[in-house]
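PROTEIN DESIGN WORKSHEET
SECTION A - STRUCTURE
LENGTH: 325
TOKENS:
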């Protein structure tokens, strides 16, 4: 057994947190040989519910779970933390405009960015799930100047996984055979799911799908999948979101599969003409706790246009909260 690692989950009594905590505690993120100390953050009114989560975690008697800290104090939750999944966020309320939502969440992620800066392990790796995830990650990073900005990422892995599942049904092949999917841009309805480089058994799938199917079925289906789940469940995706968060952290820390890549929201370094200053989803290869953006992919005019649309939305989000950066 290795030394335990400290993993912080914010919004831990919420829907996604309730899935995430148990899967991480049972070793599904970093493996059965990696003991975990969970540090769970909630707002004060949710502490009784969080206490219930702690009791259930204890009752699982997971061999990989060394300790659980439950708190409403961000400084305590991020103390010495090596990995953080920031799920807790302000949901969009009735009559709330997009800008109001950005501002409300900006406050939360400013505060948590500072708490990470002041308390966490300097090598902490942060995944932001709470929406608007890309811009929340940007805000958290800007408020944590002592942590490498590369260590702040946003989740588009759920979109990536959804796209693979959709292709798997269409092509009637197992999802594990589908490689090199890409989600470009924002975790929002402007995201661009790009199949141009996808292979099955090292063969391009381009002659198996029509342009019409891509544009009128596939792309809108992935962009709108979250809304479709809300309609069906009366609540937003939770188990699949937690699963994607685990995939994201697992691959980042332990490496992505050979001859494949994954999608992660990361600081743009200017690759593919996406100007720096925003967190944008790119295809990345992960190895030994770091990632690199896949370079030199050829892009059609259609792809470039879609990539600009989602970049523009992220620029607008940035403008709305610029004074906090
Ligand atoms: P819930 O409302 O069930 O849970 C959120 C929890 O966060 C609540 O328990 C709340 O008390 C807590 N919270 C709120 N403010 C907090 C703060 N300042 N500090 C600590 N905890 C705080 O929402 P849930 O379904 O779990 O979704 C959480 C977030 O994930 C939402 O913003 C949602 O939009 C986002 N999602 C992002 C996805 C992605 O792919 N990036 C997909 C799934 C999900 O929609």
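SECTION B - SEQUENCE
RESIDUE ASSIGNMENT:
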């Amino acid at each position: 057994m290795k030394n335990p690692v400290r993993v912080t989950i914010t919004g831990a009594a919420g829907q996604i947190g309730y899935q995430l905590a148990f899967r991480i505690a049972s070793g599904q993120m970093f493996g059965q040989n990696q003991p975990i100390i969970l540090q769970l953050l909630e707002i004060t009114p949710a502490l009784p519910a969080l206490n219930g989560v702690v009791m259930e975690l204890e009752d699982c008697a997971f061999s990989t779970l060394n300790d659980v800290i439950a708190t409403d104090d961000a400084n305590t939750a991020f103390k010495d933390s090596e990995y953080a999944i920031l799920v807790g966020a302000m949901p969009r309320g009735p009559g709330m405009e997009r800008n109001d939502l950005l501002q409300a969440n900006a406050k939360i992620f400013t505060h948590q960015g500072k708490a990470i800066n002041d308390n966490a392990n300097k090598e902490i790796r942060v995944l932001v799930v709470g929406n608007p995830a890309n811009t929340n990650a940007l805000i958290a990073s800007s408020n944590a100047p002592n942590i490498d900005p590369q260590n702040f990422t946003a989740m588009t892995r759920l979109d990536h996984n959804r796209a693979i599942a959709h292709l798997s049904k269409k092509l009637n092949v197992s999802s594990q055979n589908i490689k090199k999917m890409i989600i470009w841009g924002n975790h929002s309805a402007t995201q661009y799911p790009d199949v141009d480089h996808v292979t099955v058994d090292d063969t391009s799938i381009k002659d198996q799908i029509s342009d019409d199917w891509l544009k009128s079925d596939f792309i809108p289906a992935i962009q709108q999948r979250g809304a479709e789940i809300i309609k069906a469940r009366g609540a937003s995706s939770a188990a699949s979101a937690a699963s994607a968060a685990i995939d994201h952290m697992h691959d980042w820390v332990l490496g992505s599969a050979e001859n494949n890549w994954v999608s992660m929201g990361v600081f743009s370094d200017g690759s593919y003409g996406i100007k720096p200053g925003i967190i944008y989803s790119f295809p990345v290869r992960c190895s030994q706790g770091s990632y690199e953006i896949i370079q030199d992919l050829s892009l059609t005019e259609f792809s470039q246009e879609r990539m600009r649309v989602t970049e523009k939305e992220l620029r607008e989000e940035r403008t709305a909260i610029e004074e906090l950066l």
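SECTION C - NOTES
DSSP finds ten helices and 14 strands in the chain.
The CA atoms of residues 20 and 242 lie 5 Å apart.
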